[in-house]
Amino acid sequence: MSTSIEQVSQKYRGLRFNRIAEQLPALLSQAEANEISYLDFAEQLVDHEQQQRNDKRLQLNLRKAGFPMIKHLEEFDYRHQTSITKRQLNQLLDFSFLDDRANLVFIGPPGVGKTHLAIGIGHKAIEAGYKVLFSTALALVEMLELAQLKGELKKKITSLSKFDLLIIDELGYLPMNRQANYNLFQLINSLYEYRSVIITTNKNFTDWGEFFIDDNVAVPIVDRLIHHSHIFMLGGESYRLKAKRVK
Ligand code: ADP
Ligand code: MG
Question: Does the first or last residue of the chain, that is N or C, have fewer Cβ atoms within 10 Å of its Cβ?
Answer without folding.
Answer: N
